Amino acid sequence: MSIGANVFSIGEMSKLHKMSIKTLRYYDEIGLFKPSMVNEQSRYRYYTIEQFERLNTINYLKSLGVPLKDIKEHLEDSSIDRFMKLLEEQQELTSRKMTELEMIMNRFNERLEELTFYKKFERVDEPFIRMYPERQVIRLKKNIQGIHQLELAIRNIENEYMSSTVAIIGKVGVTVALEDVLDGKCHAYNSVFIIPDEDVNTKIINSFPEGEYALIYYRGMDHMDSPRYYEMLLTYIKEQGYEVIGDAMERVIIDQYISVDSGEHLTEIQLPVRKIINRNS
Length: 281
Description:
This protein has 281 residues and is α+β, with helices and mostly antiparallel strands. It is built from 8 helices and 12 strands.
């Protein structure tokens, strides 16, 4: 079998088009790009220069993310309308991916900013009051006892109400009913909540109202210590002339899955409050 000057082996095609021999063989197998001739004895594949433009088209569309199946269908029945439709569909898909990537980048930025802030956070074991705007949360109201029930409740929210979004450390918290806080029952959680990364539409969407909140942060991961911090917070609230008006919110911002150093772990407790107005003054 004589080979002309314009005929190229699979190795030569691989080098000329900067693609692997394995890929060229695969294209042959699926009927996307078959060699011009195959030596019956050696089974060597050979290509002609006239096939270059077809391979260029395949590589171009592949670089745009068009699936090989769609490329094959276009090349088998090509037309300008089909080609434009192929590009339009891929453009729309790419636009959606860009939106998703932008959301992911925002999550990176937000999480890194938060961790950078709390890594150097020194205002621990020190109650203070802060004004918050209304905050949207996904909240599942359910009595929760122990870590097992808590984890199951979080999975329930993720699977039922958050599509593909996954709750992350620092975005998950629990609430304690006001009456339990005042009675010192700080481990009697009555709901679990997740702070969503973006707007969501679920039947369990809720919000923590705008207003003043008394806060305290503490290091370490021993939740058995939390009653002490609730007590500190309640004492501070009373001393400042405030009263508690709603359920407590508690969330772990840094835990053992972020740092093995318990000295870097950080938990936050919030209590909604209002100033007591002395009508006799």
